[in-house]
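REQUEST FORM: STRUCTURE PREDICTION
Request ID: SP-0412
Submitted by: Lab K.M.
Chain count: 1
Length (residues): 77
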Amino acid sequence: MSKNTAHELWGADVVRRALANPAPELTSAELVHEAQRWLAVSPGAFRTWSLAQPWPRFCAVVRIVSGTIRAEVEQHE
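STATUS: Completed
RESULT:
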């Protein structure tokens, strides 16, 4: 995934605001798997599901989709 994917799903302004949130929900394997399940249904279903999440959880989803989590992990390896 990438920021471009995130921008396509939610728009650049929403992605910027979500990534700026200082207290997103902690990313878990469960959240990643749930996001993958919804994305496998369709991009539209994934977008609808993600927008129905509480703000801190949505911010975590944006971090996953945008590749921010991956970049942070790779930076600390």
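NOTES: The chain has one domain: 3-75.
Reviewed by: T.R.
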